[in-house]
């Protein structure tokens, strides 16, 4: 505990990536084992965040602060609170699983692949830990490059299109955010300190403009309807590890951005815009769910289900009450676990059959019984069965949504019915009925693959049966966030728009 | 007190052992794990019952499940009179079905899987009835639905079976949608989801109304109706009844345990449990009563013409569930639970008897291909006959007492009560008719199946016939604990449940009670008699009726075309929307058009300046980004300062 834990977990993977890049290309065994070792050590080093976290304060913990570019008042400042801490842990865990699942499936440019994976790990942890807006932006953008490469180099047949689309979407969003960041800088007495921004009161008009500038970046990442169309392409073409990182951590950053910036820095604008955000969320929930019913590709279906599930997340966040916020944050974690696991599962079966078309499957429960049982666990978590993590998150979100607006809560609950529909239909077409000759003759998943999934199974039931372990982490931070929102005045948007026009 | 935690934990342990080690180690010895576990639960349930008889009510939290702000849900047990009766029903039927399955499922490839699901189901059902708060009830509610999904689709290679499982789950989700909203509305209105808090505070909501979608609705009525949505799904009432007949795709012991005796009665149990809420809303009570009455009539008419032995019994289950629901609707919660309890025995017996017949007939379900089975399988015949007499409402057997109690209390329940009483009495006659149709067609007369089947006919093994006999004992005597005072009995059940469920006010006298009783007896005897004429004395009559009323027959044969209707108005439009609108139009054309259009415009612009451009999309992106950046920076910084 006397090491700078956050810097370590950010930069150890980066060091690992550099070491791997220096290795002999032909020595694949060494490359893989090094990647695995680095990711596991990093996971172990991140565990004190879980065990030594002080749950009674909303202040930043494990903080580090050094002057970086004093001329512009830029600091290298790190810290985690109850909102971000769990995502650091999720990132370190998922990276280990990603290395494991890529063990055999990545056959070309192995060295660069594992280096890119570790670079992504470092930069995404950096995003969650930054308390300096400039530093945050560096990590935010840095993550984009290895991710772009992951899709563009190791992806499927249509990878270039998907990679560019991913890049363009996020870049446009990021540019608007950068402008927002600069405006904030000048309005906070030339400071990038996020903690200072959280206690500054900005004029309402400025808040509104900034809200939409940040919205552009965050909504694309989440992704919210209607800027979601990059996600199915990116997921479908990305290699398994890429999809897991995308679903598990990367798209959480959008929702995290709302929580870390939009809400505490722009509370009045957030309150004014919350109804619009809830409506967009509900559209996303229903739209994403219905569109799943028409999918023929396994990964595309799960990708669209992410649109629906992330709709729940943003709904919870913008319900602006404690149940909604806690449910939303928990559901971010849940979605990372469950959707990450589903992509891992799909990757495993794809390694054998080399097809993602649902129609090529059928009767997989007969051929892969262990795999089928594990896939069932994640299917149930995805449809929110009580005692799995999905239920706790969705229930709290809908409760929060229902508290904020009866109509919104009711419509969002419809998403649960459709969710059961597409997931069980998927399961039926892949695992039940007669065996499709196309999948005949393959082996069930092996021990390495089972061990890759076991941690996620444990988390599914842990959060499902005893969610308080995780809810207690965010309790105080969420309370604090709500107090910040409540202390902000209520603004009449329509009146302001009229004033601006006049 | 602590030992009662074991009631659900024993089956859960059995489930975990069988599901983890069944495939590799336990295999066809799975019942050695599952049966002792459920037997243990049964013994503990008897102890709990004895303790409640002694006047003790247990209400204890075990651990806190979810806390978020003021929302708090725990896992805890409430063992009162209602729970105690349910515990006996669930553990005893589950035990008998476990034993029966040893013979019935013998040699099946998924033997260990079957027993692990049975254990999981028993656990979930026990959690449901033991709950002391709504969220735990909801857990049990969805978990029994999950087990039902697993067990209906047990033979998952069959498309029809996996379809039926999926249908059951999704249709139930429609009900749970309402139920879940009901739970939330209760929390928002009362600040708690614990039974004790709800029942003590619900009165304070009287007269409150709430705006929903622009309408003002009475709050208690809305809460009650939302909760009832869940019951409509789980207890397969109209309009969410469609899953139950299809659920017969599952192995027959499952039909007996889950789709007749226990799980489907969870809806009735829940309405009875929430009687303090329902009783405050006459509107909701009316809806409950009418829904139950219509379902019972609707299902009984369909059962008249079906030929699949399990489906006839399934429609009979729907009809009897309708009875229980209508009882709740007229405030006769105790009578509804009494019928739930007797029904569990005779209906489980009917299903297990049907399973025994299928076992002998190599899986044949069509009663028209049976006949004369009486002499091949006497134990099955006699027990089946006892169950049929019981369900028909012949005096002296279980079914008579509970059905009579419902009809009598409905008769006393005002105008709505009188209407549902009339429907219920008609249904009683129909029930007697179709129940004995099975007896006469399948067990009497000449065998009409193939020679191969005839050669194979045999009585089932002891592990199957002994549970049948024990259930037959239950079908006769289980109702004797509720013999009404008018017949010199003590109506023990009614008094036992009174502290929890109350007792509706009865104003008519004993003479009228005897008259109501006489009418229902006449209906039962009349139904059996007509059945005897139709299927034994003059077998040509049904055929003439079918040809004369072919339109009505087609409607009944096709179950009023409800499945077709839902397919046309829900299933098809939704998939059409996904496939023909959302994917190609909104996502494919509109959104993609806009987002791809912007880079294309820039690309077109670049074409004109291609001397300056490199042709890499990344570069276009960069120039676009830089341009936007400079532009917006100038505008914003200028505007702000």
Could you explain how this protein is built, in words?
The complex is a heterodimer of chains A (about 500) and B (about 650). Chain A is mainly α and about 500 residues long. Chain A has one domain (about 5-500). Chain A has helices spanning about 5-20, 30-50, 85-100, 110-130, 135-140, 145-155, 160-185, 195, 205-220, 230-235, 240-250, 250-265, 265-290, 300-320, 320-355, 365, 370-380, 390-405, 405-430, 445-465, 470-485, 495-500, and strands spanning about 60-70, 75-80. In chain A, strands 1-2 form a two-stranded antiparallel sheet. Chain A starts with a helix and ends with a helix. Chain B is built from 26 helices and 4 strands. Chain B has helices at about 5-25, 30-55, 80-105, 110-130, 135-150, 160-190, 195-200, 220-235, 245, 250-260, 265-275, 275-280, 280-305, 310-330, 335-360, 380-390, 400-410, 415-445, 450-455, 460-475, 490-500, 510-535, 540-550, 550-555, 560-610, 615-640; strands spanning about 60-70, 70-80, 210, 215-220. In chain B, the strands form 2 sheets. Chain B has a two-stranded antiparallel sheet. In chain B, a hairpin with a 2-residue loop joins β1 (about 60-70) and β2. The radius of gyration of chain B is 29 Å and the shape is globular. The mean pLDDT of chain B is about 90. Classes of the chains: A mainly alpha (about 500), B mainly alpha (about 650). Chains A and B meet through α7, α13, α15, α17 and α18 of A and β1, α5, α6, β3 and α25 of B.
**Number of H/I helices of chain A:** 22
- How large is the share of residues in beta strands of chain A? under 5%
The general outline of chain B is globular
Helix/strand order of chain B = HHEEHHHHHEEHHHHHHHHHHHHHHHHHHH
Strand order of the largest sheet of chain B: 1-2
State the end-to-end CA separation of chain A: 58 Å
The proportion of strand residues of chain B reads: under 5%
Cα distance, first to last residue of chain B? 72 Å
